[in-house]
């Protein structure tokens, strides 16, 4: 095929096409790979893959993740207990809530020693027990050796928690 602008030039005489074909057929030289670290790394990887058998053996290196992290699907009872022991010493904040109310800033500034604030909780009604701000149970106030305590009367299920949030 000829170029319409140069009718006397043949496509086989195209130096660029010949050079590109020659470059694609050649492997990179040692000098080129030393200049390009990616080419050197890819060449080294190709050499090591060619040397390793297809089936593999135990001496092959494995991924670091398989050595560091345990698979999740191999959990047995003893492993689960050991994992649970890891979180046993983490402190949590337990709060017992008698009730709540809303007041204005004016009412807040009028408070003094001896003031009474009316809460929405009723006398004899179970108290809310919160762990880190999440309702987990309800209980009743008890006095033991002149100290207040709370006796848990009901554990709140996740579905009940959602219902109580909607109030």
Structure characterization notes:
This protein is an alpha+beta fold. The strands form two sheets. Strands 3-4-5-6 form a four-stranded antiparallel sheet, with no helix packed on it. It has helices spanning 15-25, 30-35, 37-51, 64-68, 77-85, 105-109, 158-165, and strands at 2-3, 6-10, 94-97, 127-131, 134-144, 147-155. It has seven helices and six strands; from the N terminus they run E-E-H-H-H-H-H-E-H-E-E-E-H. Residues 1-76 are annotated as: Disordered. One of its GO terms (molecular function) is cytoskeletal motor activity. This is Flagellar motor switch protein FliN. Keywords: Bacterial flagellum, Cell membrane, Cell projection, Chemotaxis, Cilium, Flagellar rotation, Flagellum, Membrane.
Number of strands: 6
CATH topology of the domain at 86-166: Surface presentation of antigens (SPOA)
User: Which shape, going by the Cα principal axes?
Assistant: elongated
Main sheet strand line-up = 3-4-5-6
Largest sheet: 4 strands, antiparallel
Helix content: 25-40%
Question: Architecture of the domain at 86-166, according to CATH?
Answer: Roll
What would you report as the Rg, rounded to the nearest angstrom? 38 Å
| Alpha-carbon distance between the two ends | 83 Å
Arithmetic mean of pLDDT? 75
* Annotation field: number of helices: 7
CATH class of the domain at 86-166: Mainly Beta
Secondary-structure class? alpha+beta
């Amino acid at each position: 095929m000829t170029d319409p602008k140069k009718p006397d030039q043949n496509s086989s005489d195209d130096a660029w096409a010949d050079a590109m074909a020659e470059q694609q057929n050649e492997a990179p030289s040692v000098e080129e790979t030393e200049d390009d670290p990616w080419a050197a790394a890819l060449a080294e990887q190709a050499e090591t893959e060619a040397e390793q058998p297809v089936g593999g053996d135990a001496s092959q290196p494995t991924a670091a993740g398989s050595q560091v992290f345990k698979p999740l699907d191999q959990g047995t009872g003893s492993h689960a207990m050991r994992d649970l022991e890891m979180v046993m010493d983490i402190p949590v904040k337990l709060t017992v809530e008698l009730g709540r109310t809303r007041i204005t800033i004016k009412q807040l500034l009028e408070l003094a020693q001896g003031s009474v604030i009316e809460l929405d909780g009723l006398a004899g009604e179970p108290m809310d027990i919160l762990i880190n701000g999440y309702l987990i149970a309800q209980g009743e106030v008890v006095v033991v050796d002149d100290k207040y305590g709370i006796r848990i009367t009901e554990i709140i299920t996740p579905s009940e928690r959602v219902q109580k949030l909607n109030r």
